[in-house]
Write a structure and sequence with these properties.
Layout (H helix, E strand, L loop, with lengths): L1 E6 L4 E3 L5 E6 L5 E11 L6 E5 L7 E4 L1 H5 L16 E3 L4 E13 L7 E3 L10 E3 L15 E4 L5 H9 L26 E3 L5 E6 L15 E8 L2 E9 L2 H4 L12 E2 L3 E2 L6 E6 L11 E11 L2 E8 L4 E5 L10 E6 L5 E6 L3 E14 L20 E16 L5 H12 L3 E4 L7 E15 L2 E12 L9
Parallel strand pairs: 2-11, 12-21
Antiparallel strand pairs: 1-3, 3-6, 4-5, 4-8, 7-18, 8-9, 8-10, 8-11, 13-18, 14-15, 14-19, 16-17, 19-20, 19-21, 22-23, 22-26, 24-25, 25-28, 26-27, 27-28
Length: 462
Amino acid sequence: MITSVISSPTIWSPAYNPIIWMVDSDQVGQFKFKYVFDVFIAGATAGIRYKVPPNPSGVGIIDVSSIVQTELTINENLPMLSAYPFYLGTGMATEVYILAGEEYSLTATGTPIIYDGFGFVGEPRYGLYADGDFAPAPNYISPVVVYAAAQSPIDYYDYRSTGGETIQDYTMTSTTSKFLTLCPNNPQDIRSDENFTLSWINWDLYAATGPRAVPYAMKATLKLSGATAGTEVYYNTLGEGGGSWTTNTSFPERSAATGPSDPKFYLNNFKFNPIDIVTPAFDSVTLQLFSYETYGATGLGATGISEPINLTINDDNCWGFEPIRFTWLNSLGGRDWYTFIKRNTNTQNANRQTFYQLPGYWSGSSFPVTDISPARYGTTVYNVQLQNSWTASTDWITPEESEWLRSMFASPSVHAYLPGRSQPTLVTITDGSYETQSYARQKLFQYFVSFVEAQSDTVQGY
């Protein structure tokens, strides 16, 4: 039977880092011995079965990261395309657990038999769940929540070695709780017509009674010349915002013990655009999440449960260039935003495929003069691929901003709002470079980024 669980993943695990369970058995000396792991993803009733031989120490090891990665669909989670301010984390998170057992034969020539992990013949039923010794402390049968994050080797080591404590910074419980953004600026500059999104972890495993920390609303405090000019409250409901709550008077269908009822609820997004607010006039805005007032009753709580994010409206354009706004998936699994406001250039490259069209008289039964019109035969284009290439540049930025922008170059999902376009375009960054200068002993950087549009222009063909 399985005697111990040597190692389990944290309750919140980055999908693109190792997600490993290690178990031990007292039957490894049996003939043809293998560990049997039935992997269950997103509550699926049918598992994926793996039969794994023990390592030289007799331990069974399985890493499910490559399996759960295929369950994430990053291209579905584009909250800036939503018609609602709140947007569920569709495709950005899932959950996984394992039922383990053993397979072995009592004789050298016998047929292997599957045991349930508790010493009895039968299907695997020894549960492998999130590690209860890590923070946040899960229920003993909590699946591992896997989300679209990718930690560096150092960050992953620190996360594991500290017992998962750093993930608590992103659990919405206080005014210091962080959004899934790496931007070093607070406030951030935004133009009056630009989209902006925030993402966050949407579950507090420390809540004593019910889902207290599930955000109930996003409050936007509008300011003009430093004085409060008004507020807007966006409720996190299906009807009013496309979010988690069913109505203003009912609570999300969650379990206080095991978390949300569906993986899409594990992450939430909020979209904001200053142009959606007509009055009053304002030149800055503060965004902050709030819970409901008390458990069992609706009403906005008095204290925010997230860090305040400040946005400064800045429509200045002293250079006459058309800005290009980028949004990209960062290593935390959220989206970051930045606008390149200096010179940009666009180049269109054409790749043509041709054939030689014969003159009409070649096979015609009659040979009028019009059959040899120069406009009707010769080398003919039957397919054209038009690729749009761009180069954009920033103003002079600080070292902290420079380090942050490097995460855009590493991102697998980058979208750009290009001049004259009503919709963002998926792009592929091909090159990035920067210049440096020193000003008042402060080193400044200017970034240049080259990218191509993912969709080529459509042209006619023969």
